[in-house]
Design brief:
OB fold (Dihydrolipoamide Acetyltransferase, E2P), single chain, globular
Length: 101
């Protein structure tokens, strides 16, 4: 699946170690997009090295096209859904906010 929108927020990298001792990293980012005449938000997760690097090079306000997979899992009778970004394409850089005068 793909979606086009503007980066609203980029959250810090989270990292840890799984039960089997393997290290992991993830970084979430929020994209604002239009659905008809309504503005919507989608929270994406970057897990691969390539996606993590790409998110690290983005700025809030940048226009992007995000390719992602939808994944759900069950834990204690509740279901959780992630939007896992695997490709992030910069369409337009964020507008400059600090203008030298």
């Amino acid at each position: 699946m793909e979606i086009k929108g503007r980066v609203k927020t980029i959250l810090p990298i989270e990292q840890g170690e799984s039960k089997n001792g393997k290290g992991w990293k993830r970084r979430d980012f929020i994209v604002e997009f239009k659905d008809g005449s309504y503005d919507k938000l989608a929270a994406f997760t970057a897990r691969t090295d390539a996606a993590l690097e790409r998110v690290g090079n983005l700025a809030e306000g940048a226009e992007v096209n995000v390719a992602f997979n939808v994944e759900s899992r069950e834990y204690n009778g509740k279901y959780y859904t992630n939007l896992n970004a695997w490709k992030i394409e910069l369409l337009q850089s964020a507008p400059a906010t600090d203008l030298p005068f």
